Amino acid sequence: MSSVPALAQSPARSLKAEYKVAKAQLLERFRTATNVDALMASLARATDDSLRAAWNTCELPAELALLAVGGYGRGELAPHSDIDILVLLPDTPMEHLEARIERFISLAWDLGLELGSSVRSVSQCLEEAANDVTVRTSLLEARRITGSAALFDDFARRYREALDPKAFFQAKVLEMRQRHAKFQDTPYSLEPNIKESPGGLRDLQLILWITQAAGFGSSWRELEARGLITEREARELRRNEGFLKALRARLHVIAGRRQDIMVFDLQTPVAESFGYKPTATKRASEQLMRRYYWSAKAVTQLATILIQNIEAQLFPSTSGITRVLSDRFVEKQGMLEIASDDVFQREPNAILEAFLLYEQTPGVKGLSARTLRAIYNARDIMDQHWRRDPENRRLFMDILKQPAGITHALRLMNQTSVLGRYLLNFRRIVGQMQHDLYHVYTVDQHILMVLRNLRRFAVAEHAHEYPFCSQLIANFDRPWVLYVAALFHDIAKGRGGDHSTLGMADARRFCRNHGILGEDGELVVWLVQQHLTMSQVAQKQDTSDPEVIKRFAELVGTERRLTALYLLTVADIRGTSPKVWNTWKGKLLEDLYRATLAVLGGARPDAHSELKSRQEEALALLRLETVPEGAQKALWDKLDIGYFLRHDAADIAWQTRVLYRHVETPTPIVRARPSPIGEALQVLVYVKDQPDLFAGICAYFDRNGLSVLDARVSTTRHGYALDNFLVAHTEEDVHYRDIANLVEQELTARLTGDGTLLPGPSKGRLSRLSRTFPVTPRVDLRADERGQYYILSVSANDRPGLLYSIARVLAEHRVGVASARINTLGERVEDVFLLDGHGLSDSRLQIQVETELLRAIAV
User: Fold this and answer.
1) Which GO molecular function annotations are given, in alphabetical order (predicted)?
2) For a FRET experiment, which of 46, 570, 666, 680 has its CA 20 to 30 Å from that of 472?
3) Range list of H helices, 231-332
4) Which CATH superfamily is domain 6-163 in?
């Protein structure tokens, strides 16, 4: 039963109907409106009317007041924003209030209002505000809807008296930094939160909260009148704020709920609501998101200027010159400032000099508002003549060659649009989306992340993260060559065609214009051309095959090229998404590097010498484990050379120690241990072989939330399967030592008895991202160069049960799997299987297998 009195039922139904009709009409207008301020104000007024009517229906005492707080307090509501209200009580206690207030709130919910409500006295409000900056902010824009005007005036006066503008400024700036850190300090996520991300609506609201608290004004026009921003900046702020508000409003309406994240599956309908149409090279969503990124970039830049100007007015005693750096620049409290407003007009070279000084001057942590404003106003100076100026070319190379600060300088150059105006092709990829399901940044931000990763290899404080990379770069002559290659490796994305080939031309032109000649210039161009090659070889080819290593060594040619490509590859993969890189991929790349380095050093890629080397190393490890001399022979005599080439010495020793007493065992053996190379579980299965064994094991892993990263399958000469799996749990923070025993017991039980495993999983549902950006399933089956094995490459959207579906098809056709390399790239998989070539030479069987595989991986 409703808690609202019977006499209120009829008015409640009437009020609900009125509000529903009014809101529906406004939502329909929100769907296409570009200027939403009036609509947001109308929705707030309609909400006021409903709340006022509910208040009057419940006959609350005249001594109370109903206030709108938060965004609602500003007198504006987005279509599905929360409605935050405060029932304000006098400090003098009143009897029988609780039940009546509960009736009011219940009635408001019955009307369809999604409330965020609080009930406090004036003193309680002030106490909460003193302890919590969020409450202090919410109350800053409090507005009376109905009730006692005297009580509200008393509250407003006491709140103002208690408010410390300086402390409020400091708290809000700290809060902003923490919020930005949650979004990796970038607005360029491919699914940004348009309210909370850097450059979003919250940054604009924060500025107005600070200026309102300080008494500087509560609108861009008032801030312009006070001299905190110029007329042009005020116009830019209004324009970008209007776009962000319209974007958020349409996102709410199209989603049918409060939705502030521009998820992929909503980007296209929102773009179409703005009138964007797909072109031959750009989706409608890409055009909209590019506009969003440029808007967020402008907001970030203008917000930085404003916050510095506000700080200078709030803390005037700390805004003086700290030291003179040159006749062009001074330092003001850690910020680099121009000595005169027209310095860039008089001396255009000073634009790049500012970023060089920023790197070179200890204690300087950014550019001042005056400098940022001057750069913003000097955009027309950065033309073709400016780009071709030899002094500017020298300055740009000096920026790349500094021992510290390169990443910060280039990010700041991108934020201020200087980088895109100096490198015009870089400007083309600012805000360029990537629809490959594993990049989580726009192209320009990915490039800067790659450069950051390379720089971190060279910084001593980060040497513990990737010690091998740090060791290599420490001995790499002229590492700035790598930074140039990083800048150009993806610069041609979005143009159509092979971006590696197109990027080569850009890199070659840059090197010629900037005096990067001879070996260094050739290396830059070669790295741009080959920047995907090493990851493809490591993840998609059988690197246990000496011929694979030999061909890769011939392509690389020199140790310097190998090291450069390895460092760029690691930095590139790490710069796509935090989820893409893992220690297993790191091991694949490092193993390929070391094997190739040996060949470049004169070692012959000979399978038999490699076999002997690994066996000797494994024997040395077995002696440390007190395994009897010669005990390994019973097992090793049953294994072919492929087994020893596909496993390293440590794995050979571990498997031998487990199995040497059980070579002829009639019962299955399953052993699991935390992987020595990172967060994963290594599982050994030794059992009499059967046709669907691999598929059944994959089914078990899938049902238990274990994703297969790598599988190395061997069949002994006496008919046993010796399979080694590397699996990772789909949930984070799993302790693999704790689940190792469980996997051993359960998988052994499945393999015992009649030898059957659980039936395979049904086709799992695609993730949201995969449904939005489906990958065309591809299957490629071809013989290797010697015809001994067949290589199966599968590309598809990832989903539960996918690996089992593939394995099942192979099992049904009696196709043996020698190894499987599972490469998950975000929502896409690129799996490579090395298959036993027996029978696959029949072209009809090949076609049948490929056809059934395509059917199996299709959604």
Assistant:
1) [protein-PII] uridylyltransferase activity; phosphoric diester hydrolase activity
2) 680
3) 231-255, 264-273, 284-314
4) Beta Polymerase, domain 2 (3.30.460.10)
